[in-house]
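Anyone? Bumping this.
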Amino acid sequence: MATIKDVARAAGVSVSTVSHVLSGNRPISEATRLRVMDTIARLGYRPNLLAQGLVGKSTCSLGLLVPDLANPFFSSVAETIEIAAHDRGYSLILCNTNLDPAREADYLAVLLSRQVDGLIYFPGTRVPNPALTEAIAGGVPVVVVDERIDNLSGVFVDNFDGGRQVGTFLAQLGHRSFLFLGGPEGLPTVIDRLNGVRTGLGTAGAPADAMRLHFGEYRASHGYETIHACAREGMFAREAAQRVTVVIAANDMIALGALRALRELNLRVPHDCSLVGFDGIDLTALVTPSLTTVQQPSGKVATSAVQLLLSRIEPGNGHMRDENGRFSVSHIILPVSLVVRESAAAPPA
Amino acid sequence: MATIKDVARAAGVSVSTVSHVLSGNRPISEATRLRVMDTIARLGYRPNLLAQGLVGKSTCSLGLLVPDLANPFFSSVAETIEIAAHDRGYSLILCNTNLDPAREADYLAVLLSRQVDGLIYFPGTRVPNPALTEAIAGGVPVVVVDERIDNLSGVFVDNFDGGRQVGTFLAQLGHRSFLFLGGPEGLPTVIDRLNGVRTGLGTAGAPADAMRLHFGEYRASHGYETIHACAREGMFAREAAQRVTVVIAANDMIALGALRALRELNLRVPHDCSLVGFDGIDLTALVTPSLTTVQQPSGKVATSAVQLLLSRIEPGNGHMRDENGRFSVSHIILPVSLVVRESAAAPPA
DNA sequence: TCAATCAATCAAAACGTTTTGCTAAGTTGG
DNA sequence: CCAACTTAGCAAAACGTTTTGATTGATTGA
């Protein structure tokens, strides 16, 4: 790898002159400029970003902490985040936290060591990670995605309202007995969605307490296994007193697992049992029956997160500060919308 | 951020002593060691990885170039690669090339500037990117995944054999008229899979030329739209002379799109038309009918890629060199296996 | 007792940049 | 013709590390 010194020597100028040619910070005669540029091209010189990051203030890199890349919702958001960051000149360091607080802390430490300019953080764990608090104290800008955390800027969707729309919709269809397949118990997104559903049911006149709850991972296997287990308890039996007529999943992956299980049990969706998901991943439109789900504006979430973060990082784009000169905390709340597809219908007579 | 200087000052020792405490390269008295460690903890000191990377030879970072993170196959491989890299102490810089050669070149330039220790590269484009050739010339270790490129180490699956298994299987089921939904025309993975299918059909006695070909993107939309278009041409009509009885998709996303379209056309899968995919993403087991597909060992692909790359990067783990002292090129070819599920059956009578 | 060895530590160079103070011309204006 | 600029370029410091040669006392061996 050719260095700036090599270029300087080959072009017969000083190192600083090469630097000035590149940055345009000082006037350079056209002749020298051309000669330097030519040498750069000839030698295939590329500035060493490590050295630049060391002397300058910015490394043009962001850390992205995602709980589970295998979940299409996350991978799709991650993809858009990556593209948005790249468009603005930032590289992304990918961290798959696997919902493990220890891994999370580990990654946070590495990212700080790497002097990232900022962090985009999808909380996968219940409690705010102490390592995160430390990072923030260290002055690294953080944007939280998908979950509201006090004192931290964030982008999230209106999970409660999404749940409410589901609840209202199902109650109006006539459902009166519900099975809620949650994600990890205690996770704010899960709580909000559940509370939303309850509120929706309540306002539409359905008994909100007629809902069975099963928490688990945000994975298809959770939906699949829970449905089979519930079936063994007779929850879907035609003659059951409180026959479940609709399954509400806290995310689409759970719903897809549940859908598979329902089919295996020869329960027709939606004829025998309706099914609703949450997230709006692309696959929900592809499966049969297509899945009624709450559509998150995942592209908007991603671009907003990047924009919010960079507005904090880059000087002079007017990020708000409070009266103490500290950066203010912004929360961007994006709306969600219920997408009604084939999987939800009126309950069996 | 506390620096090593701050630690040295606070502990009343020189900078080099702190460094030696951390690295263990020189003997340090127990008393000093304890005092330094204590100071480090108290100040929350973290070594600056940029500075380390600048002076040392390694940055402990790898570049990952993926064509399309939204494709579950890629995101799942990316996840495993990330985990394997992190376990070995490497960070991953994520690049979503979007199948665009210009973007690819752009990313490659950035990664070189960032002094990555190595590259894991999923080719999404037909021609080997000139920027890649340049990177290799610059001495950056590269491992290619999913496609055989001469003179480059790589990990890939036996696409031809996968296709062959599909062809044999379908011919033996009695199919005689095929529709192949390829990925991008000219892409080696597509070519290999197609040639495999043809060979399989041939050896099992089916007319390999009785296969219609439609190339397109590796996306669900391609499968969906092509099936609808083909249906309009009457390709699936019961009375058609050369009625297509099975759709062979070059990957699972295309297959899922095709499945949806077939359902919309009221064609029962597999009763009216069989369907086979390729990749073995998790979702193929979840949809109904579950998808017959060629299972790639995606976890093994990921870990092999990381292992192969690190064996080149890290000194002394015996990576082979040829007689000229250059690193030898290794190709790891992993087997695939046809997973027979509900979507493929004998053709209609 | 003296040279040789050893343990513990320090000082300085190096990595590849950017930034800034400086110098040596050349140019202007009166 | 000289002071005051301007232009173009150079040299050196700084960023936070690691590495290595040097230094100091203490310990050994004969």
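Late reply, but here is one note on the structure posted above: Residues 72-87 of chain B form the longest helix (16 residues).
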